[in-house]
Amino acid sequence: DVQMTQSPSSLSASVGDRVTITCRASQSINNYLNWYQQKPGKAPKFLIYAASSLQRGVPSRFSGSGFGTDFTLTISSLQPEDFAIYYCQQSYSPPYTFGQGTKLEI
Amino acid sequence: QVQLQESGPGLVKPSETLSLTCTVSGDSVSNNYWSWIRQSPGKGLEWIGSIHNSGSTTDNPSLKSRVSMSIDASRNQFSLRLSSVTAADTAVYYCARLLYSSGILLDHWGQGTLVIVSS
Question: Confidence class of residue B28 from pLDDT cuts 50, 70 and 90?
């Protein structure tokens, strides 16, 4: 299985800050990397696919990059509704494994 | 818009079979692939498997062949059965639509249903 490791596990930031979350794969997955956002008591929400393509309706302050084994999710100017847990997921080969999550806190 | 809703027992006894159904609206289960994911405090998000109306399925080997999935196109539903459950199978179970686009993506999710395995 492809192991996905996110860092940091938690991150404190303020409204307006620029933040970056990192996701590393245990082997090359080309650009087959998705990002999800999850708020308490809710299902994950799909944000980004193919490492850098925004799902329709996702604000442009979210961006993704990376190829191979190293990927990042950047939020350019944090808004109050962005405080949540973020997960990466490799979409290269089944089982489609997730990272352990990064909790973004105020 | 596409909506999914999980249903099934919230409590299952150890060694028994967990059965969940996902009802889809806004899309046909005859199209696309459909997936199950679970989330437990100990293991985070875990992809369980996916199914297509053609009968094609893929599941997570870590579940040691305990998984079976089916589709009922007449009811626009798909289902999960997980046999021989233990406390480790306690989790929130989600259903989702799976699309193939530069790999796979899970673009619409149900709200999730908590299943507790306990006697």
Answer: very high
